Amino acid sequence: MSAHALSPLAKALMMRGLLKPRVLSTTLGIALALPLSAQVQAREVVFDIPAQPLSSALQSFGQQADVQLLFSPDDVMNLRATAVRGRLQPEAAIRILLGSTGLAYSLQGDTLTVTGRRSSSSVELGTTTIAASGLGSTTEGTGSYTTGSTNTATKLNLSLRETPQSVSVVTRQRIDDQNLRSIGQVLEQTPGINVQSPGSDRLYVFSRGLAIDNYQYDGVPSTSFAFSQALPQALSDMAIYDRVEVVRGATGLMSGAGDPSGTINLVRKRPTDNFKGYVSGGLGSWDLYRGEVDVSGPLTETGNLRGRAVAAYQQGNSFTDHLQQEKTVLYGIVEADLTDTTLLSVGVEYLNSDPRGFSTTGLPIIDNKGNRVQMKRSDNGASRDSTNRQESVNAFASIEQKLAHDWTLKVAANSLYGTRDYDSVIVGTTTGFVNPATGTGLRYTATKGDNTQEQRGVDIMLSGPFELGGRTHELVVGFNYQDYENRRNGFGNLTASGGSDNGVSGKPVNIWTWDNYGPTPVYTMNREDDDINQWQNGAYLATRLKPTDDVSVILGARVSNYKYDASLHYNVPSMVRFNTDDSVKVSGEVTPYAGIVYDLNDVHSVYASYTSIFKPQPYRARDGKLLDPREGDNYEIGLKSEYFGGRMNSAIALFEVKQDNDAVADGTVEGNDLITAYKAEKTKTKGIDMEVNGELMPDWNVAASYTHAVVKDHDGERVKTIIPADMVKFWTTYRLPGELDRLTIGGGVNWQSGIHFTVDSWQLNAPAKAKQGDYATVNLMARYQLTPQWSTTATVNNLFDEKYISSLDDNFYSGSYGEPRSFLLSTKYEF
């Protein structure tokens, strides 16, 4: 007999099938491979199994993993397998392969048994497994708070333990457990990330003391400006995403230009191989209503064409007076197996956000005596009819071709078109300081305009293994391109004499008696044109070398070309000196990457890495010359661990971020007192990241993190003090055992240290400090499984109704309050 000889059990099962051919569909079919020792579960295997009918995929799995496989043809009929590619342990691979099929399995030694679909009384596969998040994989349906692999940092499909950088993944299960609806809410729960909202639907996102302006969609870079009011990425709705991956530190290898803060990668939901979906509805505090529909499955009998459609609608008021919000989200994607080795994906997403009572700034925080202004957290600095409607269409496509010798060529493209129309009257916090006795001191500011944004991105990647020195290594080479155009036409609010051409700007207001009915401005002419053009491209290379079984060396580099053109023109003759035209061009910028990972044992690995990034900037020195590009370097050492076969991951990292040519305000440009001048400074951030994510035991998930990061200037003085130095985030859920197993309960706490800034204005007798001390918010959840398909989830945020300022804006001398206690009750029916 050959090496594929049958085991005694397999022989018995086959004989039973041969003796009863008419009932073969009710017996176990056999797929065989080389049996190995009981260590088969622990070792890693390079898998390459395309999406295909589940029966043939299981055959391929048995051959590649060298395990004996038992399954029933009836159980796998008309089901398709999720693609599995990359270096994985067999147990992790079979979980990916089975995906959302509903099948159970048992891997004992060198024998894998796949059994029928789970009944309502059986243990849910999703609550005890993880899935890889590389190509062709998903976190949806796994029930896990961690993932098997990620490629956001280097494009290499690596596990969290194998990646020599701080990477966090917020999975679909975590999103559902906490009823997280927006990208802002997700990032608030992400380790090491500080989110501030200095106005309605505006996000400032910070990591390691610096603003994040690098966003990706399915790994394709997009362009954003961290402090822009026209940022479609900040409005992203979680209904259409499988997970959010966040890399902290410099990511120049994949992103090109940016700050050494981090990258946010939003990974969309993909079509499933079997028909499934859900309908959900929710209601919450301040008249919040939300509905979602998600339908996915094969579009042809053979399953070679699959699709998914998602729709979400949300409307409601806010704890902020007179703020009303309405949002519509539509998403569609189609996948086609053009051949056994070619996968085509095409999709589009649509977003419409239409708020009323929209404010672009926070509330005044310092009065004319330098004391804290005692505002209610429900106060709104905008008129009731202020608007800021944003609409965007994001189209994307990719084609993936398997080549010989396990190589893959993938081309992905993304195109985003967005518009913004705004018309608002607000109480301007930069127009003065409040007299607490009379409520006067501030003035109205009226603005109106429209904004159009277009951007395109393309990423071409070739990846695969290669042999060198008798060992197998991995290589990724690629090229990406992105361009960005932003056009804003606005009506200015000040004339050269300080008056107003709209009859509103500059008028005084009493904030204690104002009822949010603003005067009606009259606009007669276009006052300002604000245009930005930016493009960049780059070629990158990354390789993972394996000189020994215990050592991985990851090396990479990127060569980038970058161009930025910006103009701000006021169409008023008396203000011509305020016009600016900036142009920055960089060619051949080299961004290196280096990392090493050493496996101490089967659980723990130590690593060290160096990454860098650069960012051209349009700021001018006092002599009028543009500052040199900002350059950032990230040094990191750490320990990563993987427990329970990968179902739990932990990491601890020490990091240092150095940034050269950071722009710091330095008076005005010589000969033009209306243009702020800047000087180039060196800053340094030192800190520690610690996090644990995953399953402590079956049905018990936990996510915990602690981050410390302080930014100092070249004199050793702390800067960027509006960002907390310390953050603790903790969340856990547990499904009760026995007869109470339909109930899942959870809770957590978010704590952060104090923040502050100093106001130094000629309008004050002495500098004053605006501050918020350390605070904590407590959140709870409970989910009850009414039937196998129908569940209800309740969440309570800020349980103890902590009153705190969540955002400080040192440009506008303002602050924004965090959300009071709130609840959301949702119900979901899955089919």
Tell me what the structure shows:
- The chain has about 850 residues and is mostly beta strands.
- The chain has 2 domains: about 1-150, Phage tail protein beta-alpha-beta fold (3-Layer(bab) Sandwich), CATH 3.55.50; about 265-385 and about 415-450 and about 455-830, Maltoporin, Chain A (Beta Barrel).
- Helix content is about 5%, strand content about 55%.
- The chain contains 7 helices and 45 strands.
- It has a 22-stranded antiparallel β-barrel. The chain has a 5-stranded mixed beta sheet with strand order 9-15-16-13-14.
- It is globular and about 80 Å long.
- About 45% of the residues are buried.
- Residues about 1-40, about 115-135 and about 495-500 have low confidence and may be disordered.
DSSP helix count?
7
- Uncertain spans, ≥5 residues at pLDDT below 50? 1-40, 117-136, 493-499
| CA gyration radius, whole angstroms | 28 Å
First-last Cα distance: 47 Å
Instruction: Return the structural class.
Output: mainly beta
Assigned CATH class of the largest domain: Mainly Beta
CATH homologous superfamily placement of the largest domain: TonB-dependent receptor, beta-barrel domain
Average pLDDT, all residues: 85
Count of folded domains: 2
Gross geometry: globular
Number of strands: 45
Which strand-content bin applies to the residues? Answer: over 45%
The share of residues in helices is under 10%
Which fold name is given in CATH as the topology of the largest domain? Answer: Maltoporin, Chain A
Biggest sheet, open or closed, and with what strands and sense? 22 strands, antiparallel, barrel
Reported CATH architecture of the largest domain? Beta Barrel
